Task: structure prediction
Amino acid sequence: MYAIVESGGKQYKVSVGDTIRVEKIESNEGDKIILDKVLMFVDKDIKMGTPYITDSKVEATVVKNDKAKKVIVYRYKRKSGYHKKNGHRQPYTELKIDSIS
Result:
């Protein structure tokens, strides 16, 4: 049994017990989150939404809020002496899937 949910403009395939990283959700560690944007649910039969399934939801627990590994952005133009180095760490929320209904 699995479901496809949407969070932060991205789609995730989730099953019970999975841990996923989604775009940052304003919540504390240990909070319960309900993902109600369920696009597809597969058990014994396939149930698809148009675009969402209205009576389906996925319950998850927030494991942690953190930042991803640093991505280095380096800009360089030859012959002019121009170079610039920046770094970026994208914040994320890690969720553990508790139930799909």
About this structure: The two ends are 10 Å apart (CA to CA). The CA atoms of residues 25 and 90 lie 12 Å apart. The beta strands are 2-7, 10-14, 19-23, 32-35, 38-42, 46-48, 58-67, 71-77, 82-88, 91-100. The chain is about 0% helix and 60% strand.
